[in-house]
């Protein structure tokens, strides 16, 4: 940092402090509520869920991965936050020297943004990293990307929101695009698969080696492990992919059990082996929109009623995959279409009228083409930024 920059920061009385106490952590979690108080599309995430994600004793994704959180104060008032992590599993997979930042929120002030990003960068450099990339909260398998288009709609469950001025803050600090990812939206329609495509599907799926089933709740943990195994194979060659560990699979099963229903997980088998899956979640964000991040003392009753009795009329498909040996084979493409159609039909029959499939890498042209063929439209774009250290 040069002398002029230091003088400017001092003039604006910006102080970036590490999160060190339980009070600091509470402020870190609740700070976005203040920053987005005038944004009707902001939905406060459940505070206990964010707290668990930031706790290395509860989140296996943080195991053996150094991480740090900071809050920026301007003239003594909280003005932004950021986190940084040295994701060991990412480095083992990619060996790219990238440290990650996440949980970035900030007032519209370049000096505050600079202070936060420079603080995270300096810490990552001390950890031996050669570049900083993000946002990842805290990994590619959790919330990731900075919203750059689609601010006029609220986020679906486990998707980030953002301020329209964030991209400019990043770019003025020398961050460039690493990759974009898309969210595609689907509205209820009488027919999902076009007639021209149905003939292809019928032919490919008439193969006696192909079969399907939904989630077996009596074998729930094992089925979630099957989801993870297929995911780790199917996504292996994707940009930024980091495999989920067995411990993370167990954690995922524990988190999903209260909100998942059998019809929202579909398995496709080929020649007797699990070959593809699709997983859909009810849009919990829609159910908690008026909670202000609080589940206690009585909001948990509302949540159960809205999810299990009233029903949520929005859903998101966050995960799907076809094993690599079936990639670029007609049957593999047909299985992808079939999974989406099955969960789509099951959800529309239960009153879901608005759904999202996200996120999709901009480089995954075949998937984007397929989703558009099914009536999906890109309505949000998220960007991963990077900068050398």
Automatic annotation (TrEMBL):
Gene3D superfamilies associated with the record: 3.40.630.30
Protein name in UniProt: N-acetyltransferase domain-containing protein
